[in-house]
Amino acid sequence: MRWVRVALAAMVAASAVGACRSGPTASGGDVVRVMVSAPLTRSPWVGEFVERGARLAVEEINAAGGIEVGDTMRQLELDVRDHAGSAQTAQAHARAAVERGAALLISDGVAATAVAQVTGPAALPTVITFEGGTDLVDEDARPTLFRLAPANRPMTMRLADYLADKVTKIAVLHDDTSYGKDGQRELRAAFARNETAVVATVEVPAGASDVAPQVLRARRSGADTVVVWARAPLVAAVVQAARSSGWSVPLYAGPTAEDPLVRQQLADHPEWIEGLTFVSFRITAEVGPEPWEKFRTAFETRFGRDEIGVTAGGRPVVQPPDWAMYPYDAVYLLKAALERSDALGQPLVDAFNAVFITGANGDERSFGPQNHEGVSQDDMYFGRFAGMRFRPVDDDILSVNLPPIPQ
To answer: Is the pLDDT score of 16 beyond 90?
Structure first.
């Protein structure tokens, strides 16, 4: 295979870079650059797992010799940047990735459509590793945008099916972020399909310090179940407002309920989080827990156990590095694709649509030209909190056989 070289003028405009990048280019042509753009300060749990998952893969690949491109081994270089939840900053990071000749941009998904307007013309593969918004991934409109994270639609459909014979009247609370708004749209569509009544849909400002009025509105609607689709601070605030007012309604949430911030904010009343149930992706694969355990061991050997600052039964609670698998797998997909394409730009994008790897938990990871979703819609499960730790529920056929994850 042949390493294709293209000379780039320094600091050219993004569109010009996009026109020039028909082959790989990085600092001096000696490294392959991976850029991470994540909310390191705004949402530390999300930012940290995106960075650390990518970093572990980069270090493993480099330790094994790097990426074989043509007849040359290339080392990976990780460039990590904090967008702090700002769409403008995330877009600026995308421009920097193009200008610096990055081979891959890994993002949590903030401002993904705006980012794709930059990385698309430059044919720079961009992988979302958290946001599940239904409209983000569009193979025709945004052919360089891929997702390695569970999408909202299959998660909300699974939740609606799970609740169909358990509840009669649901209140949906969501924040006013793109994450919350897309989640509530998908929830309403899923509950309508199952003919489950949504008696209240309540939007809460993401920065609200007091959500008692919104929770009271949900209570007065006659709801017998509350579903929260929001960032972690609002999930915790809803749990606190409901339980402190004596409302023992069953509470369900999206995957942000797993964010350690929820348990940290409820640490003074651990009983309030008991029974909180969330929908997310299954951590272990059908092949068994061994691949996941191997990944977890490598992750915790490198970064240490993530003790989240709360205890249960007198022991520290540890957060498993489940979401870190996605940025980790994204870097290994880059390795497979670049070794196939020998070039950045469109050849690399085409290779992303053709290669597959065995992911960190043993699941196959791949994309196709007509499907840029890297997580199967069949991989969703339900976790429920007990004693500040979560485990698979025992009343769902796809969850009950999953092993509990030590925490």
So the answer is: no
Same domain, 276 and 357: no
Question: What is d(CA 201, CA 170) in angstroms, rounded to the nearest whole number?
Answer: 9
Domain count, the chain: 2
Round the average pLDDT of the chain to a whole number and report it.
92
Residues 214, 333, single domain; the answer is no
pTM above threshold 0.85: yes
Judged against a pLDDT cut of 50, whether residue 297 lies above it is answered with yes
Distance CA 303, CA 56 (A): 9
Amino acid (one-letter) located at 275: G
Q: Which tokens sit at 22?
A: 């028909």
Whole-number Å distance between alpha carbons of 258 and 263: 8
| Contact partners, residue 13, CB within 8 Å, separation at least 6 | none
User: Taking 70 as the threshold, does the pLDDT of residue 222 lie above it?
Assistant: yes
Residues 394-400: what's their mean pLDDT? 95
Identity at 131, one-letter amino acid code: E
Residue 92 φ then ψ, to 5°: -65, -35
Phi then psi dihedrals of residue 246, to 5 deg: 85, 10
CA 156 to mean position of chain CA atoms: 15
Q: What is the DSSP letter of 224?
A: S
Domain that holds residue 348: 14-149+324-375
* Mean pLDDT of all residues in 74-98: 98
Residue 158 has pLDDT above 60, yes or no: yes
Its sign, for the CA torsion 220, 221, 223, 228, is negative
| Alpha carbon distance 164, 162 (integer Å) | 6
pLDDT band with cut points at 50, 70 and 90 for residue 209: confident
Backbone angles phi, psi at 35, to 5 degrees: -105, 135
109 and 224 part of one domain: no
Distance CA 105, CA 358 (A): 21
CA dist 54 and 105 (Å) reads 11
d(CA 22, CA 351): 14
Torsions phi, psi for 309 (to 5 deg): 95, 10
pLDDT at 15 over 60: no
Q: DSSP assignment, residue 176? A: S
